[in-house]
Amino acid sequence: MQHDLPNQLAPYAAHAASSPGRRYPEDAPNSRSEFQRDRDRIIHSTAFRRLEYKTQVFVNHEGDLFRTRLTHSIEVAQIARSSARNLQLNEDLVEAISLAHDLGHTPFGHAGQDALNACMRDFHGFEHNLQSLRVVDHLEQHYGAFDGLNLMFETREGILKHCSLANAAKLGAIGQRFIDKKQAGLEAQLANLADEIAYNNHDIDDGLRSGLISIEQLDEVDLFARHRRDVEIAYPGIAGRRAINETIRRMINTLVVDLITTSRERIASVQPRNIDDVRNAPPLIAFSDSMAQDALVLKRFLLDKLYRHYRVNRMSSKARRIVTQLFDILLAEPILLPPDYRVQPLPGGDPDQHRLLQARNIADYIAGMTDRYAIREHRRLFLIDEIEL
Predict the structure, then answer these.
(1) Which residues 6+ apart lie within 8 Å of 18 measured at CB?
(2) Which letter does DSSP use for residue 45 in this model?
(3) C-alpha to C-alpha distance for 70 and 127, rounded to whole angstroms
(4) Burial level of 288, CB count in 10 A (0-12/13-18/19+)?
(5) Which of 80, 169, 280, 383 is the most exposed, fewest CB within 10 Å of its CB?
(6) What is the pLDDT of residues 317-365, one digit of tens each?
(7) Is the sign of the CA dihedral 319, 320, 324, 325 positive or negative?
């Protein structure tokens, strides 16, 4: 059996041998570590494949060159894994968390998520992080012995990076840290910031490709402007995509190096002996104060100039209508749902509880849709000339 390698992992990293383990006991794997097994299960899941046709800013059919949630998850995993190696953390675990962190996202990115949360307002709401955990704990059906993927505790903990206190109270051990105001393990903290590095930088790239933002506008952002100047000095006459790619590459490298350096210093100052010490400490994976400020300026720029661009707003408005109208008609007429998503009323059962369960199933159905499937399903249900196939 292949175990974690203690001589390569820091004592405060996640070790499978000291983990609370899986919800359902399984025999140990023979040719891989426990966290490798988690990563492999995530890659082979249905929800992971669907990420190819889910997007964050641009709807999938708007262009082949824009990032999807699949390519984004791979980029996050690359940044997180290389950083974990430098910090002597568990690379397999941080990769598994990175690949799974968006499994519960709705179609149409944040617009779809906000719309579904509004639809679920009377049914305990919708949180995409909680939905990602629901996917790996319940909705994936690959194994005869249990629902879900039966992942290790630390992988599930990393997937659930945000959670309301009301929902945390229902989750048992996996939600307790939100109630106790404790931290997740370092691998989970690292995956969270790798996510931020990846989406900020790939949104710059996609925003420039789309023409929604310009180099001139980005020159207002110091983090971008100083790296662009360095590129022009290093490569006089460089222009076009090559100049943009070189600038973004350098930005990512600067952010990652700062993250590793600052995190190493924070860990050294606390000197955690194990993962329990990590959970009781302040956040230890972080940017320096100056780099955190640079990243914040970049995020505010993207919010103002890209995410709120009128063309993005138009698509977001359409997306919200699609999600809302799908939810409303399916809740009003559950017979329109595929059979697996219908909740059968029980004689003498509580009608409010039945409606709650049906709403949750509809949320599962819609959240699992890709962008293009949601568009097609909306046409099937609302356009009289759409042929049902």
Answers:
(1) 274, 275
(2) S
(3) 20
(4) middle
(5) 383
(6) 999 999 999 999 999 999 999 999 999 887 888 899 999 999 999 999 9
(7) negative
Q: Which residue has the tokens 């199933």?
A: 361
Q: How far apart are the first and last CA of the chain?
A: 49
HSE-CB of 292 using CA atoms within 13 angstroms: 8
Q: At what angle do helices 91-100 and 186-210 cross, to 10 degrees?
A: 50
What pLDDT does residue 389 have? 56
Q: Are 374 and 326 in contact (CB under 8 A)?
A: yes
Cβ partners under 8 Å of residue 153, min gap 6: 19, 20, 21, 22, 173, 174
**pLDDT surpasses 80 at 60:** no
Residue 106 to residue 205: CA distance in whole angstroms: 23
Q: What is the pLDDT of residue 3?
A: 45
pLDDT at position 1 over 90: no
Q: Is 235 helix (H, G, I), strand (E, B) or coil?
A: coil
pLDDT tens-digit series, residues 173-213: 999 999 999 999 999 999 999 999 999 998 999 899 889 99
């952010």: which residue's tokens?
Answer: 255
Torsion (CA) 329, 124, 344, 364 in degrees, nearest 10: 70
Q: What DSSP designation does 173 have?
A: G
User: Which residues lie below 8 Å from residue 389, measured CB to CB, with a gap of 6+?
Assistant: none
Show the CA angle centred on residue 368, arms to residues 366 and 374, nearest 5°: 55
Closest CA to 35 of 133, 132, 153: 153
Would you state the pLDDT for residue 32?
94
Give the C-alpha separation, 337 to 24, whole Å.
31
- How far is it, in rounded angstroms, from Cα 325 to Cα 332? 11
Does residue 156 carry a pLDDT above 70?
yes
CA dihedral 298→304→309→315, nearest 10 degrees, is 90
Tokens of 204: 């710059």
Q: How far apart are CA 103 and CA 107, in angstroms?
A: 11
Q: Is the dihedral of CA 209, 211, 213, 219 positive or negative?
A: positive
- 230-249: pLDDT as tens digits: 999 999 999 999 999 999 99
Burial 212-248 (b: 16+ CB within 10 A, else e): bbeeebbeebebbebbbeebeeeeeeeeeeebbebbb
